[in-house]
Amino acid sequence: MRACRWTGEDARPSTIPSPHRRFSCQMFLGCPNGKGIRQLVSSLLVTATKKIAVLPGDGIGREVIPQAMKVMMASGAPIETTEFDWGAARYLADGVTVPPDGFPLLEREFDAILVGAFGDPRVPTNIHAKEILLGMRFKMDLYANVRPVRLLDATLCPLKGIEPSGMDFVVVRENTEGVYGDVGGVFKQGTEDEVAIQEDINTRKGVERVIRYAFDYCEKHKKLDGSARSGVLMCDKSNAMTHAGGLWQRVFKEVSREYPQIKATHMYVDALCMQMVRDPRQFDVIVTNNMFGDIITDLAAGLQGGLGMAASGNIHPGKTSMFEPVHGSAPPIAGKNIANPLGAILTSAMMLAHLGLTGEAAKIEAAVLEAIRQKKTTPDVGGSLGTKEVGEWVAQRVRTS
Ligand code: NAD
Ligand code: IPM
Ligand code: MN
């Protein structure tokens, strides 16, 4: 693995220590000073090398992402990484959230993006998180937020009698529309007649492509135990939100007819929450809108052992996609070396698999499973190690596997 820092004038280098940073950025394709003959030579030399943009972000993002990088490095994956300092500190220093050309640059120069988390109490408006994180999802059109829900060990699940083989489902969350579209407004603010409107945007194109993605996913992705997936469940609130729900219902029925071998079912989101806690073994692929997807994946993270265990990908097939753990920046535990890095490490495996590096991804997943079995974990999942020590243990296991 090669690593470098971005030295463009708008994106200042990150301060994350990386023992793996061995080459200067100028050597690599895509760096402002590295054009011409060096670019040609380096691209010929590293044709199979995948270029990863790394945005650790804020809080525990800055602690868990270096561990994920360490583990990827140990796997021998042919990747080179470039760190970006987008986040609260940068915003507070110079007011920049996303530098000009930021998203086109990510799309142009990188095969994938690895993100930590955004959110810092010093930026109470959360404007930087909105512009960076939601900006990537919306402006890069990463329409399918894929959040696998896997139980790695029975001891991690707060429910009685759930075995790992029984709980292996995935939530496909619509990622570019819904109430996240920021359409609406506030009128008569500060008066007792104040009105706040937050519109829920659902386009036929947007709904259809994410539902089709869920059916395709069901068709192509097996469960961890090698068995085939067989059902897609659409979750909405069409009994109350009739306009948007009606569209989701119609499109789901239409698309499901193209996949007669896949069982298509439906649940209202409130009933789904109850069922997820009552018996999560009944789920396979769940597709839903942006906000319901956000909420049910925190619930689902709880079933996996907590937010520290949950991985996700923000995907547009064929385009540069972005991978991030489900958790946030967790300010109260930031800087204490107690954040669980396994969600970020599993996220890096998901990214490598997406890039076709399935052998390296499998090695990482196996090492995480072993860390859980041997309790080489942080306290949130029953161990007594620190963030760095867990990362080191998993990296060592990957190295020797
Ligand atoms: P959070 O996910 O940061 O934390 C929720 C709870 O889970 C806390 O108790 C925290 O200590 C715990 N937790 C989270 N990750 C953990 C880990 N890796 N190891 C151990 N414990 C972990 O959510 P929050 O508290 O609602 O939000 C904090 C900030 O993060 C906010 O600014 C929020 O907007 C932001 N956020 C960002 C993202 C993202 O960037 N993808 C996601 C969610 C929240
Ligand atoms: C997530 C987060 C984000 C979301 C926030 C930080 C805007 O909760 O990735 O799950 O709601 O999508
Ligand atoms: Mn969330």
Topology:
Blueprint: E1 2-5, H1 37-45, E2 50-57, H2 61-74, E3 79-83, H3 88-94, H4 102-109, E4 112-117, H5 127-139, E5 144-150, E6 168-174, E7 184-187, E8 195-198, H6 204-220, E9 231-236, H7 242-257, E10 263-268, H8 269-278, E11 285-288, H9 290-304, E12 313-315, E13 321-323, H10 342-354, H11 358-373, H12 387-399
Parallel strand pairs: 1-3, 2-3, 2-4, 4-13, 6-11, 9-10, 9-11
Antiparallel strand pairs: 5-6, 5-12, 7-8, 12-13
Helix pairs in contact: 2-10, 2-12, 6-7, 8-9, 10-11, 11-12
Number of strands: 13
Each distinct ligand: nicotinamide-adenine-dinucleotide, 3-isopropylmalic acid, manganese (II) ion
Order of helices and strands: EHEHEHHEHEEEEHEHEHEHEEHHH
**Which strands sit side by side, in order, in the main sheet?**
1-3-2-4-13-12-5-6-11-9-10
Q: Rg from C-alpha positions?
A: 21 Å
Mean pLDDT: 91
Distance between the termini: 17 Å
Give the helix level as a range of percent. 25-40%
Describe the largest sheet: 11 strands, mixed
State which percent range the strand residues make up. 15-25%
User: What characteristic shape results from the CA principal axes?
Assistant: globular
Unreliable stretches, pLDDT < 50, 5 or more residues? 4-35
Structural class: alpha/beta
Q: Supply the number of helical segments.
A: 12
